[in-house]
Amino acid sequence: MSTGPSACWRELFSRQFAAPASILAGGFALYAVNLYLAAALIPSIVADIGGARYCAWAACRPRPAA
Q1: Cβ partners under 8 Å of residue 65, min gap 6
Q2: Which one of 17, 32, 34, 58 counts the least CB within 10 Å of its CB?
Q3: pLDDT, tens digit, for every residue of 32-50?
Q4: Alpha carbon 60 to chain centroid distance?
């Protein structure tokens, strides 16, 4: 692999670096899917338990009582 300014992105996906690049990409994909699912499911979970007053302050933005 070249280390100078002539190195290209194609070298990152060569056979030599295929496994580390795949693991890194898989980690990013797993994190993105985890965030997406959490963001999609939290509103319904909060509604199921009765509202934001039972939710932790770090997980939900508090809303004034109606």
Answers
A1: 53
A2: 58
A3: 999 888 888 887 887 787 7
A4: 18
User: Contact 20/36 with Cβ under 8 angstroms?
Assistant: no
Q: Which of 59, 27, 64 is nearest to 45 (CA)?
A: 59
**Are 52 and 63 a contacting pair, CB within 8 Å?**
yes
Global pTM value:
0.56
Residue 63: CB atoms within 10 A of its CB come to 9
Element (H, E) at 40: helix 18-48
**What tokens does 42 get?**
């939290």
Residues 42, 64: Cα–Cα separation, whole Å: 19
